[in-house]
Hints:
Distance between the termini: 50 Å
Largest sheet: 5 strands, mixed
Order of helices and strands: HHEHEHEHEHEHHHHHHHHH
Number of strands: 5
Number of helices: 15
Number of domains: 2
Amino acid sequence: MFQRIFSIIWKEFIQIKRDRRTFAIIIFMPLVQLLIFGYALSTDVKHIPTVVWDASNTPQSRSFIDAFRQTEFFDIDYYVNNYAEIAHHVDGGLARAALVIPANYAWLIERRETAAVQLFVDGSDPNTGTRALFYANLIAQARNTRIMSDRIGKPIEPAVTLQPRVWYNPGMEAVAWNIPGLIGVVLQMLTTLLTAFAIVRERETGTMEQLITSPLKPFELIIGKLVPYILVAYADVIMILTVAILVFRAPVHGNIFLLLALASVFLMYSLGIGILVSTVSRTQFQAYQISWAPQIPAVLLSGFFFPVESMPRLAQIISYFIPLTYFLHMIRGIMLKGVGLEYLWRDVAVLGVIGSLTLIFAITRLRKTLD
């Protein structure tokens, strides 16, 4: 009995070894997930991109800015000269926080009066916004204590106060951040899996040969295969948006038609990946395994859960090659900030190049299998 059972066990190991696709997933997927979870992901929010308007431009104001720069929480990346430039940087996603130091800052400090510093925070990401407010208050309190130590014997008044203001999502509601991200994640998973399954299913059931020998030309077959899943994807996007708005009260400050139009750019990539998977898969189970393998890294490194700025540098570089990163920035920018192409054109351009190349390469490979 044990010999027979051992023979079956040995046979299964041989089959796993011979199936190179499954064997690769068994070996590499746990390693990839471990590296991502252990190295790249962290709930800590650090290196928040910050823009500064130093209207005082004095040693006292520069010392206050240095108090922010010397921490690991804020990166002073930009200097501007008015509120319009601050709005431009925050709307475009270049900065998530802004400091405005008044022109009379040094004068008030020297007169031992209270200087009010404005702090603007991008609340579209509640986690980052909350941490930014918390860290900024700690820094201001420490700075305030240092200045107050020179005011012994004087009336106890704070030297510096922060006047915070949260943009885009004043209530810091997580649903406003999560729902737009879910639209991108669901769209990627749905179109990739369905497209891969549709073509592999034809091959697995033996009907692909009938389609190849039919009067259909290869490009006609490809179009006929892709169009239904494009329509299904748009139907799902509309359904998710409807539920998000009516049930979860998710804000939509931008042009909803622009959002739907830009979704087509992302669809080029996700459909292309589905076709690529179909060209290397022989069964639907293989297609599922291969389609699912890149989903977790893409979701975790795209900024869906954690801000990209807080990840290690290597993880940030990898995120630049993940199309979902650009689509999430686009969809959140439209829904939460109400921005248009004037702020999103770089994301559209990069995503368009990646999507076009992926789709062209995938269709080329599929045509070869059909010919």
